[in-house]
# Entry
Amino acid sequence: MRRFSIITINLNNAEGLSKTIPTVLNQTYKEFEYIIIDGASTDDSVEVIRKYEDKLSYWVSEKDTGIYNAMNKGIRAARMLSNDPDKYLLFLNSGDRLYSDGVLEKISQGGNEDIVIGKIIRDDFNIPFGFYAKELTMRNVMRRGFPHQATFFAQKLFDNELYDESYKIVADWKFFVQKIIMENVTYSNIDTIVSEFDTGGISTSQHEVLVHEVKRASSELLPPRMLKDYERIAHLDDEWIAFGDALFDKVGVRKLVYSFIKMMLYISNVRLALRRKKCK
# Structure
């Protein structure tokens, strides 16, 4: 029977915590441990935690050195509670919510992959976000953020290394790339919506730090010659993204869609004309 450890990290977000906790405790599948790591909050967070204390597997409120120090505390607590190597760990930070009461039930019926990647819904954009490619490659993993609020990691993946605490906001991304690309662990990319994502998170508000840390992590993960090729690809991707953003801002949604349809019709007509010419 599949077990889970749900780990919630919190700092001075009592309101978000009060939204997160019930979505975990209301799960129909009960083979899980719930861990809350609070960073010595000075708001009402501890009062919220104490309200549910009898239903929690472990909680602590103490100072930490950053989000990844707190997440690593959660990983150690999960191992202390049950040292099952195949148990899945999910990080659901304060403000994030499990999408439905049946999420864990559905994940428990899957296979035995090392990593299971689901989808998330942003609280400001009602479209599922995640990986849609059937096969994850270096390019689509490293050029996109991954939905950590919808990603289940087998506990054994943390046996030899935890999150790199020298990073502020991309240590989880670095760990994900390390496991999926460098170590080629098994994974399953599923369409299940796992959680609703609170867009007020740290990595959504520190863009410059994000760019710097992604560049640093890439240089640590990739050999120099591979890194040069990756940087060339990244540069081309960035050019297209910038062009798309500029076009979107200038012409607006309707005009952009209309132009795209016009272009596709034009290409279709050209292909049809060439086929007819070839037949003659």
In short: Strands lie at 4-10, 32-38, 58-61, 88-91, 97-98, 115-122, 125-129, 151-154, 187-197. The first strand starts at residue 4 and ends at 10. The chain has eight helices and nine strands.
